[in-house]
Amino acid sequence: MAASRLLFFLALFTAGISFSFSETDPRDDVYFGGTAAALQSLKDVWKNTPPTWHKSDDPCVDWEGVTCSNSRVTALGLSTMGLKGQLSGDIGGLTELRSLDLSYNPDLTGILTPRLGDLQNLNILILAGCGFSGDIPDELGNLAELSFLALNSNQLSGRIPPSLGKLSKLYWLDLAENQLTGPIPVSTSTTPGLNQLLKAKHFHFNKNKLSGPIPDRLFSPDMVLIHVLFDGNRLTGEIPGSLGQVQTLEVLRLDRNALSGEIPSNLSNLVNLNELNLANNKLTGPLPDLSQMKILNYVDLSNNTFAPSTAPLWFSTLPSLTTLVMEHGALEGPLPSRVFSFPQIQQVLLKNNAFNGTLNMGDSVGTELQLVDLQNNQISSVTLTTAYTNTLVLVGNPVCSALSNTNYCQLQQRSTKPYSTSLANCGGKTCPPEQKLSPQSCECSFPYEGTLYFRAPSFKDITNVNLFHSLEMSLWVKLELTPGSISLQNPFFNVDDYLQVQLALFPSAGKYFNRTEIQRIGFDLSNQTYKPPKEFGPYYFIASPYPFPASWAPSGKDSGGAPQLKGARWFSYDELKKSTHNFSENNEIGSGGYGKVYRGMLADGQVVAIKRAQQGSMQGGLEFKTEIELLSRVHHKNLVGLVGFCFEQGEQMLVYEFMANGTLRESLSGKSGIHLDWKRRLRVALGSARGLTYLHELANPPIIHRDVKSTNILLDENLTAKVADFGLSKLVSDSSKGHVSTQVKGTLNDDEYYGLREIMDTSIRNLGNLTGFGRFLDLAMQCVEESASDRPTMSEVVKAIETILQFDGINTSSTTSASSSATDFGASRSSTLRHPYSDPVPRKDANVSADAFDYSGGYSHSAKVEPK
Predict the structure, then answer these.
(1) Which of 81, 185, 673, 735 is buried most, with the most CB atoms less than 10 Å from its CB?
(2) Which InterPro entries match (predicted)?
(3) Is 524 helix (H, G, I), strand (E, B) or coil?
(4) What share of the chain is helix, strand, coil (3-state, %, to 5)?
(5) Contacting residues for 595 by C-beta, under 8 A, at least 6 apart
């Protein structure tokens, strides 16, 4: 098509006919020169381009990975497409390009063309995980609109171009894992430098061959950096004092260099620091004072030449510390027991020092502590405590001459295994080669796989189930995948001290993702659109090649696209905290055994009810994830809808629609003027012939039991009044029993229990003293037993009602009798009649009851209730 148009216009020009173009720039129009020619050239140079590129001449209509606006290409996203070839200079013809993502195509090789500098509108440039080599072109400094630059995990060499300092809008700069050499450039009177990047939040230069000192002029108080990752280079000289002026810093990694001299005293100004790693350098002088860094989680000062000293004061004053590492140091004297008592401490690694005297871990050892390694010190005696039963290593200490036969004095293999997503529910099923088993559906498919590298996690314990469950949940929520379609395997800390995790993402339907889905997920991971839970810190992802079937490009219903989480969204802790004015008492509208319920207003003006779990009533991560999956798939006009949830910073919160019409109790008593249909249903259920039908519904709850592949749970559409005082407080799947439980929890007070008599059918109630009323209630309660085996059959219900009415002197000849007798019914089940709501929970007199959001929990969790 393009060729024929070109010949047509050539013929017209040859004939002497002239044209003027008023709106479309010929250099950018798809059908004129530049854009079409550039894309056609790229298609000719690259192998394995998407099949749709070969079926049409119009890139803006049919080509996968191409986004256009007004017939101009504005985005090219081809992550993980298996592209082979080079990035030719023709890319410069895409002058309206704003986003270019070629990540995770390791067979894209050769140099980076200087014509990338022609893309003046480019905002995002991602070439991570490719095979590019050679220098970073100076021309990248011409991209004035660039905010995100990721060139990590290639084979780039040469120096960091000073021209990058001209990128005044840049906030993400990742040059890690290349072969870059030379110094870190700063500006001079004639050249730009990286110190000019005042909007940058990320300097990721780790794992290169950068040399020379870190320039003191690189940092200033005007900068907003949060991650400075310079580890794994050849940097020398002292740590610049200017670094202490960047008080926004959260992660500082300078380890595995050749830095020397004393640590600047103003480093203590970095009060927002979560991780400090200065290990494996040549630092001297006294240990730094870290006592002001109250939110510091991870400290590693190992393998330096600090002056000998006793344990510094901050060993006993950092309440957020999870990991303390100072191996091959010069620490001496007693080890303070306070270091073992921090509530979040997980590992204390202090081997090859000179601690001496008696080791006393104290009586208040932190519950999270997993490992204490004190090999090769001078500890002469140990005061053992029953408060600590996990790994303690004392090999190489004098005390082991007397305790040589104990576990403490032998190198121990830790018995706990790192977390991996369980496939236990799949019953040992296996898959053909290249396919894997989805932990959610237990079906074989081709997952999107790769490796997640967390460069500065705030923890060291890789057995923590709740942490990895939160990671799984954040992945399927934020990547818009099917709940449970995530597999995490074999986490470990590698030689770079990065947490390395194998990731597999499974399609929601069929065996394959389509190309559009792979491009989207790849971009979300390479562009850092996906953010993991805060504890995992900065990360990068390297994808494995995806095994697309030959000439397969599905679309429409069969595309394999993953649905949203049925309307439920992920809320950050800070977002919900803000919406409730810091969970103020004025916003509290209910309370219960689970926790408190708050009225909140979201940023878009929506009013919601937020149920916040209290310590002691939280579930495990897997249980909480399961409940969210189920609640998000239940849709009924009579039930408050789940708007979203929060599962971070040690919090579990559920966000529901806010019901302003009052509680169920108020509704049943007529105060709010709603729920009339519920009154009618209870009336006929408790006192008329039609009640047989409704008791049957109680005995067989109005839920269509779904099979394992179903995505929705549908409720009986005959219900008409929305239940504000919960309505769905427990709905959990029990895979071992193969059913869905529908027991409604909550508190039914005595006045409500006996107040039901007042809503009985008046034609029955007015007959006189209904002595069988209590038996009606007992029967109704048995009809809503959680287990189906404990609920009466329909024939038993019919006969029981007939018997009760006959005892009250009412003629039941018009009702349908059943063969089984009341005696049989009573004998077939326990004779002890119990009230299922016998566990009252204190409640506030408010518009929304805490019971409205109660469900069975009870998983003990040590997370903070009020995190920073």
Answers:
(1) 81
(2) Kinase-like_dom_sf, Leu-rich_rpt, LRR_dom_sf, LRR_N_plant-typ, Prot_kinase_dom, Protein_kinase_ATP_BS, Ser-Thr/Tyr_kinase_cat_dom, Ser/Thr_kinase_AS
(3) helix
(4) 25, 20, 55
(5) 611, 612, 613, 614, 617, 850
Integer Cα distance of 338 and 703 in angstroms: 55
Separation CA 249–CA 295 (nearest Å): 12
Give me 487's structure tokens: 């597999």
Cα 808 to Cα 550: distance, rounded to the nearest angstrom: 76
- What is the phi-psi region of residue 773: left when phi exceeds 0, alpha when psi lies from -120 to 50, beta otherwise? alpha
User: Which tokens go with 785?
Assistant: 């037993």
Q: Which two tokens stand for residue 819?
A: 């063969």
Tally of CB atoms within 10 A around 372: 24
Closest-CA residue to 397 (of 424, 422, 378): 378
CB 519 within 8 A of CB 80: yes
Q: What are phi and psi of 646, to 5 degrees?
A: -135, 130
| Average pLDDT, integer, range 590-613 | 87
Residue 461 corresponds to which amino acid? Answer: D
797 pLDDT band (50/70/90 cuts)? confident
Pick the more confident residue, 156 or 731.
Answer: 156
Report which of 853, 867, 859 is spatially closest to residue 595, judged by C-alpha positions.
Answer: 853
What CA–CA distances, in Å, run from 754 to 294, 666, 748, 774? 55, 15, 10, 9
Tokens of 729: 């407080």
611 known member of a binding site:
yes
Could you give phi then psi for residue 715, rounded to 5 degrees?
A: -110, 160
> What's the residue count for the chain?
868
Instruction: Please give the span between the terminal C-alpha atoms of the chain, in angstroms, as a whole number.
Output: 61
Q: Are 363 and 343 in contact (CB under 8 A)?
A: no
Closest C-alpha to 129, from 544, 506, 547: 544
Q: DSSP of 29-94, one letter per residue?
A: STTSTHHHHHHHHHHHH-BS--GGGGS-S-HHHH-TTEEEETTEEEEEE-TTS--BEE--GGGGG-
Q: Which 8-state DSSP code applies to residue 418?
A: P
| pLDDT above 70 as % of the chain | 71
| Segment 288-313 mean pLDDT | 96
Distance (Å) of CA 93 to CA 64, 74, 225: 19, 12, 34
Cβ burial of 665 (10 Å; 0-12, 13-18, 19+) is buried
Tokens of 809: 């002197």
Quick check: 812 pLDDT over 60? no
- Contact indicator for 330, 309 with CB cutoff of 8 Å: yes
Q: How high is the pLDDT of residue 709?
A: 38
- Is beta strand 486-493 parallel, antiparallel or unpaired with respect to 499-505? antiparallel
Residue found by looking up tokens 């002001």 in the block = 292
Q: Which range, 328-337, 568-577, 591-600, has the best average confidence (pLDDT)?
A: 328-337
Query: For position 169, what pLDDT does the model report?
Result: 97
Structure tokens at 752: 């409500």
Cα-based angle 331, 333, 334 (whole degrees, multiple of 5): 110
Do residues 626 and 740 touch, judged by C-beta distance below 8 A? no
Average pLDDT, the chain: 78
3-state SS of 371-390 is EEECCCCEEEEEECCCCCCC
pLDDT tens per residue, range 710-733: 444 444 444 447 544 343 434 333
Could you say which of 707, 750, 751, 845 is catalytic?
707
- More confidently predicted of 845 and 367: 367
242 residue type, one letter: S
- Would you place residue 551 in the very low, low, confident or very high pLDDT band (cuts 50, 70, 90)? low
Q: How far apart, in whole angstroms, are the C-alpha atoms of residue 252 and residue 242? A: 13
Which 8-state DSSP code applies to residue 703? B
Q: Helix (H, G, I), strand (E, B), or coil: what is residue 475?
A: helix
Secondary structure class of 264 (helix, strand, coil): coil
**CA atoms of 213 and 258, how far apart (whole Å):** 9
Residue matched to tokens 């004098």? 398
Q: Is 496 a residue of the active site? A: no
**At residue 227, what are phi and psi to the nearest 5 degrees?**
-125, 120
